[in-house]
Every structure is written in C-alpha cells, then in structure tokens.
Fold each of these.
Amino acid sequence: MLDAGIKEQLKAYMDKLQQPIELVAAYDDSDKSQELRQLLEELEPMSDKISLRTEESNDVRRPSFAINRIGTDIGVRFAGIPMGHEFTSLVLALLQVGGHPSKAAQEVIEQVQELDGSFEFETYFSLSCQNCPDVVQALNLMSVLNPNIKHTSIDGALFQDEVEQREVMAVPSVYLNGEAWGQGRMTLEEIVARLDTKSDEKEAEKINQKDTFEVLVIGGGPAGASAAIYASRKGISTGIAAERFGGQVADTMGIENLISVPYTEGPKLVGAMEQHVKEYDVDIMNMQRAEKLIPAAKPGLAHEVRLANGGSLKARTLVLSTGARWRQLGVPGEDEYRNKGVAYCPHCDGPLFKGKRVAVIGGGNSGVEAAIDLAGIVGH
Ligand SMILES: Cc1cc2nc3c(=O)[nH]c(=O)nc-3n(C[C@H](O)[C@H](O)[C@H](O)COP(=O)(O)OP(=O)(O)OC[C@H]3O[C@@H](n4cnc5c(N)ncnc54)[C@H](O)[C@@H]3O)c2cc1C
C-alpha cells in the first residue's frame, strides 16, 4: 500500500509519538476493507507505541478505523482510506493523538479546550478535494484537545448511500450532532469562532481598543497583502482587516505563473504571504468582515469601518482590496440549491456526482477543463 520511501518517512514521524495509541479497525468483506487492512498492518510495526485490534461494536461504518490514545477518551475516526489529499490528515492524526503538540496558536488551543457541551462532528470529504484536509485536520485537532468533541471523517465516494440520503453534494460537508452544520473550506479559527458563542463579543471588544491606523487595508488577498507591506515599509502604521486572509489564492491548487517560482500551491503561497506581511509591523485582523464604511466628516479626520461582529476600526486612509467572488447566474433556485446540486469546485465535488447528469455553465478555460474532468466521472 505504501511505497518504501513513504514508509521510511512515516517511520521517522512515528518516532515522535509520545503516548501509546491503538488503531481499532472495522472491516467488512469489500475490496476497500482489504486495502484498509493492508494499510493498518503496515502502520502498526512503525512504532512500539502503536497497536492494532479489530472493532467489537457493530455500530460503526465499515470500512473505518479509529485512532485512540490508550487509556483516555481521546480519539478520531476515519471512514474509508485516508490517502490522496487526506494522507497528511492521517499522519497528523496519528501524531496528535499520540501526544505530539500541534502548531496552532496557544490562544486558539485554549479556546478549544474551554468549549463546553458535547460536539459530535462528521465530515464528508473526497480524496481529490484540496480544501477538505483543512477541515478534517482542524476537527481532528479539536477532538484531541477536548474530549467533549468527537470527529469522524467520511470518504463520500465510498459511502454513496449515506451521501444520497443526506443529500451531500459538496465537500467538505460538516454535520454536527446529526444536523448539517457547514460546507466548504474552514480554518480552525473559523470553526472555533462559530462554536464559541462569546467570540464575537470578545473580538469586538479587542477591535474597539485599537488606535486609529494611518492606513487600514480591507481585504487580505495578494492585493491587500502587497498594499500593507508597501505602507508599512514606509513606516506608516498599518492594519489589515480581512474576512479570510489569503483570498482566492487559498483555494488554488497549482500556481505556475508567479515569475521566478515555477510551481507553487495556494495554501503554501498564502503561508509565505502571511510570513512576508509579518516581517513588518502590520496588525493582521483575520476573520473580520467589514459591513459599513462611514467616511470622515472632513479632511484630516478618521474614516470608520464597522465590522460584522459589532466592532469598529478607524483609519486616516483606507485601501479597499476586497477582490472577487463566485459569479452568480441569477437563476431561480441558485441560492437555495448551493452545495445541494449547485457546485463550484469540479475537483472537490465531482466524485459526489458519479453517474449523474451534470451541466457545466461557462465555456472558458475553467469551464472546458471542468467538463473534461467531469466526463470521466459523471453519467453525462
Ligand atoms: C481556483 C482559482 C485558481 C486561480 N489560479 C490562479 C493562477 O494560477 N494564477 C493567477 O495569477 N491567478 C489565479 N487565480 C486568480 C487570483 O487568485 C486572483 O486574481 C487574486 O487572488 C486576486 O487578489 P485580490 O487580493 O485582488 O483579491 P482576493 O484574492 O479575492 O482577496 C479578497 C480579500 O478580501 C476579503 N474580503 C472580501 N470582502 C470583504 C469584506 N467585506 N470585509 C473584509 N474582507 C473582505 C477576502 O476575504 C479576501 O481576503 C485563481 C483564482 C481561483 C479562484
């Protein structure tokens, strides 16, 4: 299942396990179960802190497996085989359940640990979805940090009946305690902010205490990041307020037209962009949606930007770099059926339309590429 090079790398990672973990496998008689058995039997000998046993309960999806920290309530479950884009999620889950610390900010870790209540998450992913690992990894980490949080990641292509019954037509799709909860790419911070009912209030309070900026950039895509770097390099006090730092680039897989960089990937470029901005004294305020702009009453006074969480920021100069959004067709049902038949990512969501009739709207480069890719999966 794993080639020699990967095995060697994985073994080196497994040396970092600090606490014993067990892999608890639920098989059936499918070919996929055979593949899963092979994978788990290859993982077990990689560390003497890993053990493998079969699941006794009948109340779990098959094929699936749990990774549990022995002697605790901490664990995560994968239904299906987390290869493809989810392989990193598997490696991180093994490490984190095994006590290896995460790189998440301490403030967010504490916020997760303080979450009260019982949260049973299920995430549907596809192995070709590049946005899914972020969600899978965030929820896995949360269940490692807080035993009140449980998470199962499910390969939608393998559990078609379930996907049909729940009308899952886009990935990642997240269910919480049996109810549809969220769709699309979400960061750990975004998930925590939605669960922490007081987070808006706390954020608004922090925001309101900020001094007036010389330059405030609204939007954290490449344009906003460049504007902030330029302003800050001149010694001007600068802030960025962005609904989602990174912008569209975060959703891009391969980028091959950034001169001097023959190939990079969106999330990697966003990471580098953030690092670059942090080289300067720029106040990055992520997950802040601007809702209203109140221009200065007269020259020399500050403009005010009101945010969705109730906070407000002041600045003498504003740079608006709010980029682009998916274009709407304006046809009836488009909003109601978003992610329930109306999809925007052929690579991510294509496998969920296996055997179905699909129309691609738009015949430019992206439309033609989508049609060619989908033709290999869908009915027509
Ligand atoms: C799938 C895909 C693939 C692509 N591939 C390539 C490629 O290979 N090469 C290439 O050159 N280009 C590519 N592009 C285009 C490229 O990503 C965009 O041209 C670029 O991101 C535009 O940058 P921007 O900063 O102007 O806006 P965006 O990237 O759109 O960023 C807008 C920013 O504003 C924020 N924002 C919006 N509204 C508000 C609000 N009310 N309050 C606060 N913040 C707000 C957003 O959260 C975001 O941070 C691709 C785009 C997509 C979607």
Amino acid sequence: MSVAVCVGCGETKEGAFEPCDGCGLDPARGGTDRMLQARSLLLSERFFGEESLKELGRKIRTGEPVSYDTGRLSQLVEELKTQKLPVISRSTPGCSIVTWSVLGMLVVLAAGLAYLYGSWRH
Ligand SMILES: [Zn+2]
C-alpha cells in the first residue's frame, strides 16, 4: 500500500482508497463520485513524493487551497471509468458472491438438463 493524503482533512493514510481515520472520508464508498476518487488518487505516492504529500496534507489541514492538476484529474477519471482498480473490487465483496451464485445456478441447471435428457432417453 502506498501513502496517500486524505482530500477531506489532509490526514496521511495508507492507500488512496482507504477510509480516513481523521474525518471518515472513504473514497471507495463514494461510488460514482469519480472526481473524489481521482483527487484521492492524485494525492498519493503515485504522483507525489513523501515530502510533497506532507506539504499537501499540511495545506489541506490549514485550509489553504490545493491546486489539483485538472488535466491529470480528468485523465484519472477516465482511467477509473474504464478499468476496475483492484482496491475498488476489494471493497465490494458482494461482487464475488454474485459470481458464485450465478455459477452455482448454472451447475444446478446443467445437472437438471442432464437428468431430463437421461430420463427422456430411457
Ligand atoms: Zn480525512
């Protein structure tokens, strides 16, 4: 996990999509708020060094305006739209449950068809 800064309060946290201990802001639960997620992603080790992140965090804490790179933000929004980041899918365990229940239903269906086919042949 990389170090990131909370866009809400400037607290340092682990990973851009981790919920913040300071203010409770959870970008992954923002759902469709891609701009919030993009901003969170921007304020992470992926784009800034540790010192810059500390400085950005200090700015947010003291209420100073932080200038986000709008070009990079829209690029990140696009990236979030097209690719499913592992951190996001990790925070939605319901996804795998749906996949498994669909698979289970298919197995039951196949078994049922095989049984019907078998009894029809006899
Ligand atoms: Zn926070």
